[in-house]
């Protein structure tokens, strides 16, 4: 578990530090970037929120609150609090056209910054849990690397960056967005800002 948790945080930190991000869209408080490396597509959503970074961290690290602003989360159940900083959740997501609803078993690792210039981190990856085997009513999907980095912009505002390394399980929710025929990423980001503020 210690290794999984360390590699969860390390994978997100590594993804965030990659160079070569291309900006694809800019709104007032939201910027969307993509990064392609071989067959791997990642995206980053940067959001400006008028709340202290520690408040954003506390709201974004509890995944049971995710349904308040993310319509891709139908349900989110806490399966296991491994420690104060590590929790395992079972998430269900709505079906995309002609498919069964999807579900995910995820490890969420949260870290406070060790130094003032470092961000708060909430890292997410799929794990296998014997107690929650795949069910015939859902299409079990995988998250390789996703999560939030929250940078302080002073005492009352912060920059929230959401990252996701896209897998086939996540792609159906993004395909229309990345081709420009849907605005679900922007809409979700604006809902997230509204929720935080």
TrEMBL record:
This is ACO12 thioesterase. The gene is Acot12_1. One of its GO terms (cellular component) is cytoplasm. GO terms for molecular function: lipid binding. Residues 16-166 form the START domain.
């Amino acid at each position: 578990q210690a290794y999984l948790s360390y590699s969860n945080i390390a994978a997100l930190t590594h993804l965030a530090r990659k160079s070569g991000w291309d900006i694809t869209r800019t709104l007032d408080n939201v910027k969307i970037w993509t990064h392609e490396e071989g067959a791997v597509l990642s995206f980053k959503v940067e959001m400006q929120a008028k709340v202290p970074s520690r408040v954003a961290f506390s709201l974004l690290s509890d995944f049971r609150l995710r349904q308040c602003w993310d319509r891709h989360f139908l349900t989110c159940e806490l399966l296991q609090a491994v420690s104060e900083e590590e929790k395992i959740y079972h998430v269900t997501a709505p079906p995309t056209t002609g498919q069964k609803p999807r579900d995910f078993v995820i490890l969420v690792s949260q870290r406070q910054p060790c130094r003032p210039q470092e961000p708060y981190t909430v890292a997410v990856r799929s794990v296998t849990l014997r107690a929650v085997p795949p069910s015939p009513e859902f299409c079990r999907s995988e998250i390789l690397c996703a999560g939030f980095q929250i940078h302080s912009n002073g005492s009352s505002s912060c920059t929230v960056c959401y990252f996701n390394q896209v897998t086939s399980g996540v792609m159906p929710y993004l395909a229309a967005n990345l081709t420009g025929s849907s605005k679900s990423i922007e809409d979700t980001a604006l809902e997230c800002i509204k929720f935080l503020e």
